[in-house]
Amino acid sequence: MRRVVVDREAPQRDAIDEAAKWIRAGYVVAIPTDTLYGLAADPFSAAAVARVFDVKGRVADRALPLIAADVAQIASRLGPLSETAARLADRFWPGPLTLLMPAARQLAREVSAGTGTVGVRVPADAIARAVCAACGHPVTATSANLSGAPAAVAADDVEHALGDRIEFMLDAGSTPGGAPSTIVDVTAGEPRLVRAGAIAWEEIQAWLHSARA
Prior knowledge:
Layout: E1 2-5, H1 13-24, E2 29-32, E3 37-40, H2 46-56, E4 66-67, H3 71-77, H4 83-92, E5 97-102, E6 117-121, H5 126-135, E7 139-140, E8 142-143, H6 155-162, E9 168-171, E10 182-185, E11 192-195, H7 201-212
């Protein structure tokens, strides 16, 4: 595995471009996010998505979350946000809020695990956003660990667990860790909490109420 050190506050362009090159070529790349290390791959490639599950040693029975550079990238590659989703994105992105939206037809089927929906967010991490921007599309962001093992907080954790399974890693040292992103389903009329996380459900509901007032 090739391991390249990158500055979290000012990611080096050549490092970001190299990570994007590996992803576009169909490989799995470990990158830091605003919570933990994640496995980034092309969600539009069935072969690349299959590699993610193989790396994790997991059957393809659970959906893969995505991250994106910004709202514009989500709209252009996954579809426009609903009015409710746009309100939440305006307030909580970049940040630890994952929104479930209809899965774009072009996505590999395994990304949504056959549910027809996909979770996506814009992370509060300059490296993760830069990788998405360099790729030109959202990427997967499932945790960089073997299935059932502890999540990887530091680059050394990733190399210890997956060093012989992945081709490239962006090393930004330790990540903040903490609670996972809050997941909210915005595919129906009223938003629904799917998983409690870093952003309190009460805060989300209060924001939507104030936005409607």
